[in-house]
């Protein structure tokens, strides 16, 4: 009888351990917040406020920073389903419409990612003093090249915290998310303003400072 009880306890403990092991996850489909991006080669350093809609495949970025020692300020709306990107200038009431030749990738941990570890950001000494996060690592195929990544998300909710990508050209590219809010604080941010109605499609020339769109 004791042997049976011990066996049942061992099975329950084993199931509990398996259930507690972190698994790859997908971030909330609607997010609003801020992020910073920098590269190891110091070409790019930027801050942005973002609005993210995975359901409609739309992203709004209002950013400023430096690229190749030149400062820039951009307000862009990415509409992946339509395959277009709007560069918006409210001061001049102008709008530039360009092709968006990228596939939409939701913020998520790939299924084949490897768990690097679990940690508490802040302190675990008292309630509300820390956040439990999981860090994952792996490789992704992007535009005919393989890049390494390391991504940290919260254990509860899968909210993005930091993401590192490594490529031969830029070295490590670090993206940090902060002030994240679930949902869309202003849905109008994902709709082109009226003065964009007459914008005509233009061809892209050269490399844009905001090439970190690919992090999405």
From TrEMBL:
Top-rank taxon: Eukaryota
InterPro entries, per database record: Ependymin
Any one GO molecular function term: calcium ion binding
Keyword Cytoplasm: no
Signal peptide start and end residues: 1-19
GO cellular component: extracellular region; lysosome
PROSITE patterns in the record: PROKAR_LIPOPROTEIN
One GO term (biological process): cell-matrix adhesion
Pfam families (UniProt xref): Ependymin
Record bears the keyword Disulfide bond: no
Keyword line: Signal
Family the UniProt entry places it in: Belongs to the ependymin family.
UniProt protein name: Ependymin-like 1
Organism the protein comes from: Poecilia latipinna (sailfin molly)
């Amino acid at each position: 009888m004791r042997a049976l009880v011990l066996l049942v306890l061992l099975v329950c403990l084993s199931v509990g351990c398996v259930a507690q092991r972190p698994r790859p996850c997908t971030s909330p489909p609607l997010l609003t917040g801020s992020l910073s991006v920098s590269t190891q080669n110091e070409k790019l350093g930027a801050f942005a406020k973002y609005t993210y809609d995975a359901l409609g495949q739309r992203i709004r970025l209002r950013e400023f920073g430096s690229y190749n020692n030149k400062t820039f300020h951009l307000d862009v709306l990415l509409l992946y389903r339509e395959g277009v990107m709007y560069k918006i200038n409210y001061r001049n009431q102008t709008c530039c419409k360009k092709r968006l030749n990228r596939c939409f990738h939701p913020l998520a941990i790939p299924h084949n990612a490897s768990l690097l570890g679990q940690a508490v950001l802040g302190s675990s000494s008292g309630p509300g003093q820390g956040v439990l996060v999981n860090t994952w690592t792996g490789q992704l195929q992007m535009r005919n090249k393989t890049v390494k990544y390391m991504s940290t998300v919260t254990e509860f909710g899968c909210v993005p915290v930091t993401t590192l990508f490594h490529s031969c050209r830029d070295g490590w590219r670090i993206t940090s998310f902060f002030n994240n809010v679930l949902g869309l604080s202003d849905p109008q941010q994902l709709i082109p303003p009226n003065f964009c109605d007459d914008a005509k499609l233009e061809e892209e020339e050269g490399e844009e400072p905001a090439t970190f769109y690919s992090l999405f």
